[in-house]
Amino acid sequence: MRAVRIETSPFQILSLVEFESILKKNQHGCAKISGYISAEEKNRIMAMISEETWAHIWFYDETEGKNILFCGYIEDLRIHAEADTFLLTALLKTGTGKMDMGERIGVYQNASTSYQKILETIVQGYTDGKLLMGTEAGNIGKMVVQYKETDWEFAKRLAAQKNTVLMANEKSAGVKYTFGIIEEAGRELLSYESYSIVNLIGEYQIKKNCGMTESDAVAYKVKTREIFYLGDAVCFLGKNYVVGEVERKWEGNEIYNYYLLETKGELRQMPYGNKKIIGASLKGNVTSVKKDTVKVVLMEDETGGWAGQKWFAYSTIYSSPDGTGWYCMPEKGDSVRLYFPNENEAEAYVNSSVNEQSSNSSARSNPDEKSIKNKQGKEVLFQPDRLILTNNNGMSVKIIDDEGIIIESDKSITIRAKENIGIISMEQGVEMSAPEKIAFQQGNTMLELADDINVQGGRVNMQ
């Protein structure tokens, strides 16, 4: 199948001057086309072009069959006028280019979420978006996070996690691409102008740990008039390859194609992380608490959390494997941060409960005071001259530097000990007072101070 004639849309070119297109794995395809147009066509084109205008470049083969050569949105269009001639030059890009137009934040917490579900959800957000799964990817197996990455960057990183690539679609309008390599029987490439043998030993040294063999390091650069597309399976010189790069050029009134034919092993990619996420944190609210873990909903998650939630470890001031340490968990609804210590987002943990819109702002207005308090009002308060333990509801123990210890309660106070209880004043007296009575009892012996003094015992000694 060879291209013998070219047709374009939405602009009608009278005389083709230049055509060139380039497509590579993990990259957007782009094309440049130049040709002379009529004055009427110039006026029509300038009135209709917008950022959503797609251009198609077709070719007719030897049998006058019409096939697509390249389709992309118009990224740049210029018309050069000289005398009565008008030269149009258009730059096109495959629809995947729209996936690189803005960075996003998306958090996929549930390890059982599939790669396909994530990628399909993303691509369906674009006009005529479509994903073709060439490699069975399964579930993500751990939390993955799109942090300040474009959708295309994120999809490439997910592909690398499965040691595979993305292939942009150049055949139709819309945001379309293939995840991985489609398993299919290759069409044989028999007719070619020339070829070069490319030794990719440098790539082999990098990728040998992810499945690339030394024999995969041999690729072919072939010049031919035969039409293949990016990602196509090709049989060449008796071996099976995949089209990893496509370059097409208009030369001498014909389209010549330059293909880089690579093995599936050479197309394998090394996994990598997102360095932007190192040290980053995302604001969230606690939805559940269990033991030393929490679930959170993240405010900056643009996915809305459709993938579900996972249990995150909660960072405390101090913790050790033997169970010693500080155990103080946040409450449901508390504001926290999900922190990413390195580029492996699965190692993220929750920390830093943040005080927001407190109902009692005065409680945190003096930096000289430190406090520990739960939502029921129980509090330990450290002030410069005293320590206070209180329930803020009538009971407290105060240790005051200049006064001593004060115990107050609106209910009973009970002191029990299996052994001795000693109350000793080293320099002054011991005072006890009560509005009704004071009673001392030991076994059958009792001393009661009420309106009268009553003494009971088997034997009473008075001196």
Dominant shape: elongated
- Give the structural class: mainly beta
- Low-confidence spans: pLDDT under 50, at least 5 residues? none
- Estimated share of beta-strand residues: 35-45%
CA distance, first residue to last residue? 129 Å
Number of strands: 30
- Share of residues in helices: under 10%
Overall mean confidence score, pLDDT: 90
DSSP summary: helix tally: 4
The main sheet comes to: 12 strands, mixed
Rg estimate, integer Å = 39 Å
Number of domains: 4
What are its keywords?
single chain, 463 residues, mainly beta, 12-stranded mixed sheet, 4 helices
Which helices and strands, and how do they pair?
Blueprint: E1 5-9, E2 15-24, E3 30-37, H1 39-48, E4 54-60, E5 66-82, E6 85-93, E7 103-108, H2 115-123, E8 130-133, E9 144-150, H3 151-161, E10 166-168, E11 176-179, E12 187-188, E13 194-199, H4 201-207, E14 218-224, E15 233-236, E16 239-251, E17 254-262, E18 281-290, E19 293-298, E20 312-313, E21 335-339, E22 349-354, E23 370-373, E24 379-383, E25 386-390, E26 396-400, E27 404-408, E28 438-442, E29 445-449, E30 453-456
Parallel strand pairs: 8-11, 12-15
Antiparallel strand pairs: 1-4, 2-3, 2-16, 3-6, 4-5, 5-6, 7-9, 10-11, 13-14, 14-17, 15-16, 16-17, 18-19, 18-21, 19-20, 21-22, 23-24, 24-25, 25-26, 26-27, 28-29, 29-30
Describe this structure in words.
With 463 residues, this protein is mainly beta. It folds into four domains: 5-93, no CATH class; 97-179, Baseplate protein-like domains (Phage tail protein beta-alpha-beta fold, 3-Layer(bab) Sandwich), CATH 3.55.50; 187-262, no CATH class; 278-354, OB fold (Dihydrolipoamide Acetyltransferase, E2P) (Beta Barrel). Helices cover 8% and strands 41% of the residues. Strands 1, 2, 3, 4, 5, 6, 12, 13, 14, 15, 16 and 17 form a twelve-stranded mixed sheet that branches. The chain has a five-stranded antiparallel sheet with strand order 20-19-18-21-22, with no helix packed on it. The protein has a five-stranded antiparallel sheet with strand order 23-24-25-26-27, with no helix packed on it. The longest helix is centred in the middle third of the chain and has 11 residues, at 151-161. The mean pLDDT is 90.
